[in-house]
Amino acid sequence: RGPIRGGTALQAILPRPVGGPPVKKQWMTQSQRAHRPDGSRTLAGPIRSLMLNRTLRNTLELAVSPHGRGGLSGRYREVVAAHLAETAAARAAGHVPEVSVFWDQKNMPCFRSGHWRSARDSLQRIFEFIGGIIDHPITRIEAVEYTIEDRESDLSGIQSWPTIMSLLRQLGGVVHRVWPPVTDADDEVVCERIKGFLDERARGGPDKVLALMSGDSGFVPLVEAAQSEGVLTVMFTDQGIIRYFPPGADFSVAVQYPLWWKSPNDMDIRHVLLDARSVALLPDEEILPEHGTVRYNKGVLALQGGRAEELDRRKLHSWLKDTDPGYGHVSSAKHDGSWVRPGQRLNDTLTASLRRALARNGTE
């Protein structure tokens, strides 16, 4: 398939996994699980994770710097240093790849509305925070929702609050629909979209950064396959760890980042991101001396795409075809038992059932 574009330590191209991640197994206690030797489930790469320093680029530059504390050594340092040199040369030439974010919202429900901020503004600041860490403009965000409705709903029906996916649509994200809510239905769509992202690049499309927001380790084989094809991949997990996969390499670098939605004790990051009075995500030209040290960058959010690009992977029963096309709910007039599914004796009434029973035994 030819050489890998943008790769540093070129390795063999890994095959992409078929389908989605493995179906999650039922929770088991530690004594019921199969024994795994220590380190057998650890991804290849440096054992010690790095601490985030505003952006991933700054963090890695300090990790390979001979004048600082470092953090990377051996071949890890050599490969990452060569990758950073290529990235710096591309930036000097005016080439800054765009970022496509794939959000596995079921496994990483990282949304939290902030104090004195609207829900939409809070969601926008969260993705600006993610874009600031990657230090590349985010031009696409894709997610999956479980819904039976044919059209998008502006309200969730609970206290008239907008749903998260409706907010993402308002920002310009692409939200795909699946039904019924089974274990891996949304994961399969995420994998399908990531493979489409890789196929577009393989056909000669522009180089882009692949960002995955998910706490599901089942995506790792696909992410490693993308890395082997020369794609810079960043995986945000729900454990406070970012896995940075240098393109063309055979390892990843772990970077710790703050969780603004999970830790009840880490109120500082929530204040920094979601408080309306916070000045943390100001652009560099607006930072004043009285603002103090700014620890986080404000990323560029210029989303492209729309409703026309959303996938419909819903699998509905035939009896739902006669429903309200707007919301997909069964009309209240259909609940009296006069309407049954073809070939099945369901949605029946007790009176009609007794009449048939009397007809069968000849007593009527």
UniProtKB/TrEMBL annotation:
Protein name: NYN domain-containing protein
